[in-house]
Amino acid sequence: MEGKNMSFPSRFVLLGFSEYPWLQIPLFAVVLVSHILTITGNSSIILLSMMEPRLQTPMYFFLDNLSLLDLCITCTIVPQLLINLWGTEKTITSWGYITQLYMFTWASCTECVLLAVMSLDRYVAICHPLRYGLIMHPWACVWMAAVCWSSGLANSLLQVTFSIQLPLCEHHTLDHFFCEVPALNKLACGDTTTNELSLTLGVVLFGMMPLLLVTISYTLIGRAVLKLASAEGRHKALSTCSSHLVVVTMYFGPGMYLYLQPPASSTQANFLSLFYCVITPLLNPLIYTFRNQDVKAACKRILPLHGRRKAFQAR
Predict the structure, then answer these.
(1) Who contacts 72 (Cβ-Cβ below 8 Å, separation ≥6)?
(2) Is 3 left (phi over 0), alpha (psi -120 to 50) or beta?
(3) Where are the beta strands (DSSP E) in the chain?
(4) Long-range contact set of residues 22-29: C-beta below 8 Å, sequence gap at least 24
(5) pLDDT tens column, 248-290
(6) How many helices (H) and strands (E) in the chain?
(7) How many CA atoms lie less than 13 Å away from 67 in the CB half-sphere?
(8) Among residues 27, 42, 44, 95, which one has the least CA distance to residue 72?
(9) Can you give the pLDDT at residue 262?
């Protein structure tokens, strides 16, 4: 227990990508552009759903929640990452560290549960279309979204509060570009058995269980689609699920790999984390709108209307 520091440090050092100095500026440019596009894309989906009555359905309600979570993740992680990539000091204040811990854990756990709920929505829409309006009525959707957010918050409060109470060693340097619970646990000098068990339980509840629900939902969807006589019907059913499946793969793939089989090098872990913290929130709006005729039609209706309104005001 030598070298223990019982007080919480005022600053932490986030090494991130400092091992590659030549990569700092190019990565800064990529992350900055991605951040701007992420905010623009996810905000547009939320605003579009609010303005267009035809998009006020359960599917787009959950998509709005997904976009809001992506905004939470990127706005929690990316600003500090940009500061550290641009500057020479790779530090973060203790209050910034704790804020990142709580917000990232909350948003990431909530997103895991939300993706499972979205797969359930697709299952009901395809396998029980006549009862879809009854099962997925507005208040049911609100309650399911509330469960997603509240369960993520409960896990965040539990995991982070346990971790910040650990006695830390003298060095406060993390080989990472943002703050998360496993990285903080590695700085502890005391016994972390309880924290590791709590973290494992969180991975099971918010990683493996939602992924299992997604797998079951799409297995049942696949069986139902194969029974459809019309090839057009099968194509339409699959097209409504393809976007969600791609997002699930991009989100759960790197995340589960990092937690269940930690990479041998910190560089690999940093790039995998960069993918699901920066790239995935950027791609989600593109994936959901690229082949979505409803969103394209809504854009065509709203943008000309907005243009005519501005022209009228100019007169």
Answers:
(1) 103, 106, 107
(2) left
(3) 4-5, 11-14, 91-93, 168-169, 173-174
(4) 24/85, 24/86, 25/85, 27/85, 28/82, 28/85, 28/86
(5) 888 888 877 776 666 556 777 788 888 888 999 998 888 877 6
(6) 12, 5
(7) 25
(8) 42
(9) 61
Q: pLDDT tens digit string along 169-203?
A: 767 788 888 888 888 888 888 788 888 898 889 98
Question: What pLDDT does residue 261 have?
Answer: 63
Pick from 179, 154, 148, 184: nearest CA to 166: 184
Instruction: Tally Cβ neighbours within 10 Å of residue 254.
Output: 20
Alpha carbon 303 to its chain centroid, in Å, reads 28
Per-residue pLDDT reduced to its tens digit, 32-89:
999 999 999 999 889 888 887 778 889 889 999 999 999 999 999 999 999 989 888 8
Which residue in this structure is represented by tokens 């020479």?
A: 88
**Residue 222 is which amino acid?**
G
The pLDDT tens digits of the residues spanning 197-254 come to 988 899 899 988 999 999 999 999 988 888 877 777 777 777 778 888 888 888 888 8
- Rounded to whole angstroms, the Cα distance separating 65 from 297 reads 21
306, pLDDT greater than 60: no
Extract the tokens encoding 279: 């790239």
Report the C-alpha gap between 35 and 79 in whole angstroms: 9
Q: What is the DSSP letter of 242?
A: H
The answer to whether 9 touches 170, Cβ cutoff 8 Å, is no
Give pLDDT, residue 302: 67
Question: Which residues, 6+ apart, have CB-to-CB distance to 36 below 8 Å?
Answer: none
Give the chain's length: 315
What's at 281, amino acid-wise? Answer: P
Residue bearing tokens 């910040």: 164
Q: Which residues contact 227 (CB under 8 A, 6 or more apart)?
A: none
Q: What are the structure tokens assigned to 99, written together?
A: 């804020």
Q: Residue 312: count other Cβ atoms within 10 Å of its Cβ.
A: 8
